[in-house]
Write a structure and sequence with these properties.
The protein folds into two domains: 112 residues, Roll (10 Kd Chaperonin, Protein Cpn10, Chain O); 81 residues, 10 Kd Chaperonin, Protein Cpn10, Chain O. The chain is flat, with a radius of gyration of 20 Å. The N and C termini lie far apart (47 Å). The protein has a seven-stranded antiparallel beta sheet, with no helix packed on it. A hairpin with a 2-residue loop joins strand 15 and strand 16. The chain is an all-beta fold.
């Protein structure tokens, strides 16, 4: 991409991000054969959608008057709306996407994750194997993860202020266990308001 001086700078609440919309929809079948899955029928399926990219330009300011924590060049993970065609822009032959600032979850720099706004990453807890008195292991066909709970791994400033620490077991509200893969690891992505209790 050419100098960011040639890319418009968003005035308020919008981030311009460069991303590959087919990054997670590409599958290698053999050494020489690679396919791109057509996601037209399920454009937001989490196993195929792109939720990461590089910030081209952050907003000049935010309407909530909080500081802008993003800068050009930051590598970020975002909401699954990132590569919606309705959000795409093209300039000088380069395509990029516009996304609301509040839908950017975190910055990753050299493997370190910094959460933005009120987003948190919670690690799912695998259910423990159960066995009968005779030693027969009970195989579960339902969800292998504990319901409505997880381990706090990367947390917002707001949750830290409420006493939540990395490693705490937290309980969250129903339907807030949205899965996202960040740097190869699966987390639940949720806002502060979704966390309803902790054990520390």
């Amino acid at each position: 991409m050419e100098s960011t001086n040639q890319i418009p700078k968003p005035i308020k609440d919008v981030v311009f991000i460069q991303a590959n919309p087919n990054k997670n929809a590409t599958r290698k079948l053999t050494e020489d054969v690679e396919i791109v899955i057509d996601t037209a029928f399920h454009p937001h399926a989490t196993e195929y959608v792109t939720q990461e990219g590089k910030v081209i330009n952050p907003p000049t300011k935010l309407s909530n008057k909080k500081p802008v924590e993003l800068k050009a060049g930051d590598y970020v993970y975002t909401h699954h709306f990132l590569c919606d065609e309705d959000q795409s822009l093209e300039l000088n032959g380069e395509k990029f996407y516009q996304l609301h600032y509040e839908l950017v979850h975190c910055i990753v720099n050299k493997g370190k994750i910094k959460m933005l706004s009120d987003w948190n990453l919670i690690e799912p807890i695998e259910k423990k194997e159960e066995a009968t008195k005779s030693g027969i292991v009970i195989v579960r066909l339902d969800n292998p993860k504990e319901p409505l709970s997880g381990t706090a791994r990367h947390i917002s400033k707001g949750l830290k202020a409420l006493g939540v620490k990395k490693g705490d077991k937290i309980y969250f509200s129903k339907d807030s266990d949205y899965e996202i893969i960040i740097e190869g690891k699966t987390y639940y992505r949720m806002r502060d308001r979704d966390v309803i209790g902790i054990v520390n």
